[in-house]
Amino acid sequence: MGLSREWVTVRASIVLTFAIAVLSILVGLIHISTGGVAGPLAPYVPDWVKQTVGFTGTLTGFAMLGSGYALKRGYRVGWYSTAVLLPLTAVQGLLQTSAFAYPLVVLSLVSLPGLLVNRGRFTRTYRPSPTQLAAGTALVTAMGYGTFGSFALREEFSGIETVVDAFYFTVVTASTVGYGDISPATDIGRMFGISVLVINVAAFAVALGVLLTPAIEAQLSKALGKMTDRQLDLLEDHVLVLGYGDLTEPILEELAERGVTFAVITEDDRSARLLDDQEVPTLTADPSDVTPLERAHIEEARAVVVATNDDAKDALAILTARQLNPSIRIVAAATQRENVDKLRRAGADHVISPSTLGGHLLVDSAFGDDGEEVADEIMGEGDEE
Q: Does 318 reside within a domain?
């Protein structure tokens, strides 16, 4: 019940985060369109603040949507961003001096304690790839070049007087909108405007490609139940689980609880899609083939667990794994007790017979044995000649 209660509170934190995000966007849009409905704090809030918080509230709402998505995926960065944005939405709700904003304030404050309590539940780390870092740096640099460059050359432009004007010019130029309210007045200004256009369009194109391509690839991989090349490249010192079925589920749960990196290779498309929905790294292929084992970096794996629910396929998978990595530790599960020795001769270090596990343990418990002989029997070591 404790675990169930904890799961419910985590789910509630995620749902509340999305609800606050939507409410912040709606309240911000209402404030922008109406100028704010007078509230108790209206006389104490400067006019320029009232004009600004509608836009910032809307932007905060979109940022909160991203945080909610990160929370749903279990990322720690999502927890940090939400913890910062919740007080911010509450403050902006107060400053918007609108009766519509008070539910946003209350909901933000109520959600904060639950988020703090569940901090330990969001443990996934996000590490951007070097390509993503380079694309982000290029985008920021290009925007900075346009903003500070146009401000420094403001005498060459008509309409640029402040840094905000320069940033506005950079954005409309990079987006190719070009409203025409700011324009270069000299040849130097025109040449600089061309450079801003070329550099920023290129930076935006690269950034969108870097960000959208992995997302599209991930969706296609999810539909097909396949790991992406980037996921495969990250595999190192991991456990390869060959096959998937009822026997494999507790294996994956145990590996996940121990924080061990693992990947599953199964030729069952339906199982692969189910595993991918659970964010389990999965490769849809025959686990006894050489190519998928090589793609899953068996040479860098720490162990192989073979459990295809078919002893003949298990034997082929063991032979292939042993051929590709002679020193790797291989553990197999035999569906039939008489095949334990065969799987061991195929190259498995240890073979377990789950079909007889329950009976062994029950008898052992009934007679009060220390379990050592039973353990040898389970591991398939009791029949060695």
A: yes
Closest CA to 306 of 379, 251, 256, 227: 251
Residue pLDDT, tens place only, 97-148: 677 788 888 999 988 888 888 887 787 777 777 777 888 889 999 999 999 9
Q: What's the gap between Cα 194 and its chain centre?
A: 38
Smallest Cα–Cα separation from 265: which of 239, 237, 246, 300? Answer: 239
Report the alpha-carbon distance of residue 341 to residue 359 in Å, rounded: 20
- 304: containing domain: 229-352
Q: How far apart are the first and last CA of the chain?
A: 49
Closest CA to 307 of 252, 235, 236: 252
Number of domains in the chain: 3
- Is residue 46 classed as helix, strand or coil in its secondary structure? coil
CB contact at 8 A, 153 and 102:
no
- Name the residue type at position 157: F
Please name the residues in contact with 238: beta carbons below 8 A apart, sequence gap of 6 or more. 260, 261, 262, 263, 297, 300, 301, 302
Q: Distances from the Cα of 301 to the Cαs of 262, 282, 318, in angstroms?
A: 9, 15, 14
Higher-confidence residue of 216 and 211: namely: 211
Asked if 63 and 89 count as a contact pair (C-beta separation under 8 A), the reply is no
Residues 255, 343 within the same domain = yes
CA distance 116 to 82: 10
pLDDT, residue 34, reads: 72
pTM greater than 0.70 = no
Q: In this structure, is residue 171 part of a structural domain?
A: yes
- Bridge partners of residue 331, in order along the sequence: 305, 350
Per-residue confidence (pLDDT) for residue 55, from 0 to 100: 82
The answer to whether residues 330 and 344 belong to one domain is: yes
Q: Are residues 165 and 243 in the same domain?
A: no
Q: Which residues, 6 or more positions from 42, have their beta carbon under 8 angstroms from its beta carbon? A: 36, 50, 97
Q: What is the 3-state secondary structure (H, E, C) of 232-282?
A: HHCCCCCEEEECCCCCHHHHHHHHHHCCCCEEEEECCHHHHHHHHHCCCCE
* Residue 327, phi then psi, degrees to nearest 5: -100, 0
Q: Do 28 and 80 belong to one domain? A: yes
Helix, strand, coil content of the chain in percent (nearest 5)? 65, 10, 25
Per-residue model confidence as pLDDT tens digits over 23-69: 999 888 887 777 655 666 667 777 777 677 778 888 899 999 999 88
CATH code assigned at 183: 1.10.287.70
